[in-house]
Design a protein that fits this description.
Layout (H helix, E strand, L loop, with lengths): L4 E5 L3 H12 L3 E6 L10 E4 L2 E4 L15 H8 L8 E2 L3 E6 L5 E5 L2 H11 L4 H14 L15 H10 L4 H9 L2 H5 L5 H11 L5 H12 L5 E2 L2 H15 L3 E4 L3 E7 L2 E7 L4 E3 L2 E4 L3 H8 L7 H9 L5 E9 L12 E11 L2 E10 L12 E9 L1 H7 L3 H22 L7 E7 L1 H8 L13 H6 L13 E3 L10 H18 L10
Parallel strand pairs: 1-2, 1-13, 2-9, 6-15, 13-19
Antiparallel strand pairs: 3-4, 5-8, 6-7, 10-11, 11-12, 14-17, 14-18, 15-16, 16-17
Length: about 500
């Protein structure tokens, strides 16, 4: 008997994950990818010997441990075996106009001492933040069943397993970084907490970042994002999966309320027993489908959900290493005069050095990036006027160069290569809605309104959604789990036991 076939749209991390787990469970899988490399948003690009990374800043559960459930997933996907991880002792450094700097150390003891030295009067909220980081060092969300398959017993077991954390989780998810920062009298600490992840983000986002970093389980994989994606691609093809590059899907084929395959933009049809879309949600339900098949949560989110903002990434190849940035994941500093760049008022300049990864630059050289907020509508309008588009990119590049040079004198003279990627660039390259690098903001209000995002659409059997858009706020773990859970749903439908293997 021939294996059931699965056509997967997109070779991003979620599509590769669905392909890997599909092969592990005996399905005949084919991934259809419009680009010529894997990874989707997990990507990098080369310019004159420099590799500019466009995705990974830190990888959740990059090291094994009893509280690192995602590490097992990365192992199943072949992404971490033999890969060196670099752990930074400082998550983010914020430099104020008064010359003081605030380092968000991963080690909660070091963080507490540092923050109290900066502002002894803020001892109470400082101690509370560091208590949370210590407590959540031992916490890891289990990787189990999809929400669609969880019984009351499964839910009860999950709750009981987290019973020592539930009260804190409730507080951390209901408190935004903006509201928590208001408890600080010192303006640098308040600004720094707001700047670290985003003022609208829940406090759990910061705590759940510092906690794994504190146990050296949120490192950067040497080689960067594209190498990481290619490792999963290798795992997939080794398992027997196939990828067709340059194959842009135009629509999903239906018959009698069932998905039966896809049609490529060139008219080629690919039949399949199951279709999985790992493209973003809007492209899938309003493009590959006709827009009539929408779960109510999908409709509400697409109409009014608040997206993570898009960004502009300015990348530099320089002929030395800024060693002052070695210990931190990144740095933000206030510019002397706010700038209007790309339709956005910019008060903070960010800078990150990749000098710790020699594979990304020629010997003795390094890559430096600066991430600025992006206004999608501004760039969408401007892209129709190519000369104006080029002028604005040059303005941004010059502004970043000047600001970083003031902070690190001699920076301008060291530049060998410069590249600017706008929200329009990310949208064109990946197809992600409005060029967003994540999905919806996981605010306290979001959690209350939406229990979870379904991975199916009404009235269409044998069709599944596998992108990170089904796991807000998104990111690599969300993408990997989305692909994994979709295959769990397929196995459940086919009355098969879901299995996993490691290389």
């Amino acid at each position: 008997m021939n294996a059931r076939t699965i056509a997967i749209i997109g070779a991003g991390i979620s599509g590769l994950s669905a392909g890997c787990y599909g092969c592990m469970n005996g399905y005949d899988t084919t991934i259809l990818e419009s680009h010529n490399v894997p990874g989707g948003l997990c990507t990098a690009w080369q310019r004159k010997g420099y590799t500019f990374d466009g995705c990974i800043h830190w990888l959740v559960d990059s090291a094994p441990g009893p509280n690192a459930p995602f590490y097992g997933v990365w192992e199943e996907l072949g992404a971490v075996q033999g890969r060196t991880m670099v752990d930074h002792p400082v998550f983010w450094r914020i430099v104020g106009t008064d010359g003081r700097s605030f380092s968000l150390y991963a080690d909660p003891d070091r963080l507490e001492a540092h923050m109290k030295e900066l502002s002894p009067v803020d001892a109470e909220p400082i101690e509370q933040l560091c208590r949370w980081v210590r407590k959540f060092r031992d916490f890891g969300m289990p990787v189990g069943k999809p929400r669609e398959l969880m019984t009351r017993f499964d839910t009860l077991r999950l709750v009981l397993g987290m019973r020592g954390y539930l009260r804190d989780l409730r507080i951390l998810t209901d408190t935004t970084l903006a509201s928590f920062s208001e408890r600080f009298k010192d303006p640098l600490l308040a600004l720094g907490l707001n700047q670290a992840i985003g003022s609208d983000a829940p406090l759990i986002a910061l705590v759940s970042t510092l906690a794994p970093m504190s146990r050296r389980a949120a490192g950067f994989p040497l080689g960067g994002s594209l190498a990481f994606a290619k490792a999963i691609e290798h795992r997939y093809t080794t398992l027997g999966g196939r990828i067709r590059y340059g194959a842009r899907v135009g629509r999903i084929l239906e018959k009698d309320g069932r998905a039966v395959g896809v049609e490529l933009e060139d008219g080629t049809r690919v039949s399949a027993d199951v279709v999985v879309s790992a493209a973003d949600l809007r492209t899938t339900v309003n493009g590959l489908l006709d827009g009539s098949r929408q779960d109510e949560t999908h409709r509400v989110l697409l109409e009014s959900g608040k997206l993570y903002p898009s960004c502009v990434q300015v990348s530099f190849g320089i002929h030395h290493v800024i060693h002052e940035l070695d210990e931190c994941l990144g740095e933000a500093f206030l510019v002397q005069d706010p700038l209007r760049l790309g339709g956005v008022d910019v008060e903070w300049m960010t800078v990150r050095s990749y000098g710790f990864d020699p594979s990304l630059a020629p010997k003795g050289c390094s890559v430096v990036t600066s991430i600025l907020p992006g206004d999608w509508e501004f760039w969408e309008r401007l892209r129709t006027n190519r000369p104006a588009y080029a002028v604005e990119k040059e303005r941004i590049a010059n502004a970043c160069t000047d600001a970083i040079d003031k902070r690190y004198p001699g920076f301008t003279e060291s530049i060998e290569v410069l590249d600017v990627a706008t929200p329009a660039t990310f949208e064109r390259y990946t197809g992600n809605w409005k060029g967003s690098f994540m999905t919806w903001m996981l605010s306290p209000e979001f959690r209350k309104q939406h229990g979870y995002v379904r991975k199916t659409v009404p009235g269409l059997d044998n069709f599944y959604l596998a992108s990170m858009w089904t796991f807000p706020p998104g990111g690599l773990p969300s993408a990997a789990i989305a692909g994994r859970e979709v295959i769990q749903l397929v196995c459940h439908h086919d009355k098969k036991r879901f299995v996993t293997t490691k290389p």
